[in-house]
Specification:
The complex is a heterodimer.
Chain A (H helix, E strand, L loop, with lengths): L7 H5 L3 H10 L3 E6 L4 E9 L2 E8 L7 H16 L3 H8 L2 E14 L8 E10 L2 E10 H12 L4 E10 L2 E12 L6
Parallel strand pairs in A: 6-8
Antiparallel strand pairs in A: 1-2, 2-3, 4-5, 4-7, 5-6, 7-8
Chain B lengths: L1 H12 L4 H6 L10 H19 L3 E3 L10 E4 L11 E9 L8 E7 H8 L6 E7 L8 E3 L4 E3 L2 E5 L12 E7 L6 H12 L5
Helix pairs in contact in B: 1-3
The chains are: A alpha+beta, B alpha+beta.
């Protein structure tokens, strides 16, 4: 099934430098800039008769930032023959106020002077299971231990930041046991 | 071309149901409201112009209320291979025509969305139609005439406003949205310029 990303809030979280790095790494070349460096033109030729073009927005305040990121996902979907969701999950590096649903994979020993410690979750980030680390304290930490021991699903909201091959959930709030549907 | 336009218009007006036929001609137009008819008619108008200018249309996938239609050209020879233009379409039967301008009261959100920077330039296109829907087209064996005329304007770089609902914009009557005008706009975009 083809999935098209239409959520402008999600599309606006994608940073141009992340896409630029991806294009450079996959054989695209920048051929010029338009509108006082508001955007860059990138091209890719996979055979002599077929050349693809991407308009990469370089300024977040552009009125069509989300639309142009959506165009890029559509073009890369064709060129790379993979889902937009798959490509999007590579491009997402931070996402504010994101709600993770998943399970607790690992509980670090709490700190010596307070009931607080690192928790590793396995949760869905744009349809892909990802490792997400966060730090919980007091009642939330105890809830996480219970969820871990009893293999219960959890959900938690925070600011998602990508670090290498895993994510960090900063400012975790509203940590709860159960799926979103059950609340 | 004529047949294709007719088919499109047929879809706009929609075929009446059997019961509508029994109740007479008037019900033929009751299926679609007047705003939907205006939207469909203006899209058809733009499609006719774009097809003569050898461009394709697309509908934006992200709904932002300020872009109704996109026009794309393939095989550009300038800076951009596939130059595009995005349109906010308005269709009105009210007489906003003055000597040199058409003065159109545009919703504030549309005004702001059209005046800011965008990588794919946006313009406002106002399609002026007769008041009576049955006058929107005139057809003979020789021609299919769509009435009256579409005008365009770029609001890029227009100033901020303290208005709270509408902004009356001036669309020059000289800016008729014709195949030649559209080609000139696309050509400018092709070279990295504004419409």
């Amino acid at each position: 099934m083809k999935v098209t990303i239409k959520d402008s809030q999600t599309l606006e979280t994608i940073q141009p430098d992340i896409i630029q790095a991806h294009l450079e790494a996959t054989g695209w070349r920048e051929t010029g800039r338009i509108y006082n460096n508001a955007g860059a033109i990138w091209r890719f030729k996979n055979d002599p008769s077929n050349e693809y073009e991407i308009l990469l927005p370089l300024q977040h305040n552009l009125g069509d930032y989300a639309e142009r990121i959506s165009d890029i996902l559509k073009t890369l979907e064709i060129v790379e023959k993979r889902d937009q969701i798959d490509i999007l999950s590579e491009f997402i590096t931070n996402y504010s106020n994101f709600t993770v649903q998943g399970v607790v994979m690992q509980i670090a020993t709490p700190e010596t002077d307070k009931l607080r410690g690192e928790i590793t979750l396995l949760g869905g980030v744009f349809e892909k299971l990802q490792e997400i680390k966060t730090t919980l304290a007091n009642y939330d930490y105890i809830l996480a231990v219970k969820a871990y021991q009893e293999r219960l699903p959890i959900c938690c909201t925070g600011d998602l930041v990508k670090k290498g091959n895993y994510f960090i959930l900063d400012n975790p709030q509203n940590f709860q046991i159960g799926n979103l549907k059950s609340f | 071309m004529e047949l294709w336009l007719l088919l499109t218009i047929d879809r706009v007006l929609k075929k009446p149901a059997a019961t509508d036929l029994e109740n007479g001609f008037e019900l033929k137009f009751s299926i679609m409201d007047i705003n939907q008819q205006k939207e469909q008619f203006s899209i058809t108008y733009i499609r006719a112009i774009a097809s003569v200018a050898v461009y394709s249309l697309y509908r934006p996938e992200i709904d932002n209320d300020s872009v109704d239609l996109g026009i794309i050209s393939r095989g550009g020879t300038g800076k951009i291979i596939s130059p595009r233009l995005e349109l906010q379409l308005k269709c009105t039967a009210r007489n906003f025509l003055e000597e040199n301008y058409l003065k159109y009261p545009l919703m504030l959100k549309n005004y702001n969305d059209l005046r800011i920077n965008a990588l794919v330039p946006r313009i406002l296109v106002v399609v002026l139609v007769p008041e009576k829907i049955t006058d929107w087209i005139r057809q003979t064996e020789e021609e299919l005439c769509l009435k009256y005329c579409a005008y365009w304007v770029s609001l890029h770089g227009m100033p901020d406003t303290t208005n709270i609902t509408n902004v009356t914009v001036e669309v020059p009557r000289i800016n008729q949205f014709t195949p030649d005008a559209l080609q000139a706009i696309i050509q400018r975009i092709n070279y990295g310029d504004l419409p």
